[in-house]
Hints:
By secondary structure, this protein is mostly beta strands. The protein has one helix at residues 17-22; strands at residues 6-13, 34-39, 43-45, 53-58, 64-71, 76-78, 84-89, 104-107, 124-129.
Amino acid sequence: MTDYPVIWPMGRKMSGFGERLWGLIKVPEPAAYQAFWFPRCRSIHTFGMKAPIDVLGLDQEQRIRQVERHVCPGQVRYFKGCDSVLELASFSPWPLQHWLGQQLIFNRQGVPEHAQFEATDPNYFAIAIAIAGAGLPVDRGRDAGAATGL
């Protein structure tokens, strides 16, 4: 088993109609450790949001295909050739642009024990990046399962 560094320990799958419609509008500003995954989504809007966000466009294998940094409120972005998007806090310290083509690993078992939600909830998971030996901290002892099945 290869260890991959967990980048966002508190990911959430946005699956219901209301969640997808409202997105992060009700979140004042996402924290740096949070990520919001919108499966089967190729465009986003930031109407009604209070803070800018960073957005990643992912293909069916959860590889990063497009990076949009600092998307301000009141804008629309399209992700051609993407299957889903990941919305993040803006001004992320991670080198997102350098990760184009890298695969993200969605891992339910990587959710921290101190999380403020039920770790067995299938809509919550940790997100790692499949770059072994990249000099990033590694979440050892976790199952680095693939994103399929979420």
